[in-house]
Amino acid sequence: MEEKDYEVEQQIDEILKLGKNSANSGIETLTVIGQIEGHYVLPEGQKATKYEHIIPMLVSAEENTDTKGVLIILNTMGGDVEAGLALSEMIASMSKPTVTLCLGGGHSIGVPLAVSGRRTFIVPSATMTLHPVRISGTVVGAPQTYTYFADMQKRIVSFICRHSRANEDDINTMMMRADMMATDVGTILEGHEAVECGLIDEIGGLDSALSALKKMIEDDEKKKKAD
Q1: 131 is catalytic
Q2: pLDDT value at residue 203
Q3: Cα torsion for 55, 60, 63, 65, to the nearest 10°?
Q4: I want to staple 217 with a disulfide (CB 3.0 to 4.6 A). Which of 3, 54, 65, 68 is the partner?
Q5: pTM
Q6: Residue 108 annotated to the active site
Q7: Separation of alpha carbons 199 and 115, rounded Å
Q8: What does the mean pLDDT of the chain come to?
Q9: Per-residue pLDDT band at 10 (split at 50, 70, 90)
Q10: Annotated catalytic residue within 108, 116, 163, 164
């Protein structure tokens, strides 16, 4: 085994251990912090969540019979669009109870992640930024390029609306708002605003999120016994 592969496996093992709940309640914790790193490696010194680390954690949580539910805690500025959307789809497709809690920020592609749980919470001081799909670097100035951007944005908006109470027209309007951000278009929502527009289920912190998750686990177990 190459040294690099061994280091990656060690990192994944450490992350998996951190995610285990010390109270042995069957709840695993997943954190998405900093930038979401996808196809390109981010510069040194930049806090990042690597999607290739999170994927095996989600698979393990889904397959592990000792895991009853998953708590996803977010404080992210966004990052790789495809990686973030892929993780969102994985969380949303889990059969086990999932709760997301947005602390600090759930910006950009962090929005789909924030709404991907069965129940979603946000603290009052947290913010969420909605804006159109962007890309850095060389862009080919061809119609196909802009069509790709438009299609990607439709997929993101569609996911958000399928997993929240938000209205598609409202989301598109907020994404294109031009009077709020100095160097970009979009909208910054505070915690209570995210709830009011239907993005997030309710205001709440760690206690609320854990209580909701434990209740969902209890309901799932009752249902299984009844079947």
Answers
A1: yes
A2: 98
A3: -150
A4: 68
A5: 0.85
A6: yes
A7: 7
A8: 87
A9: low
A10: 108
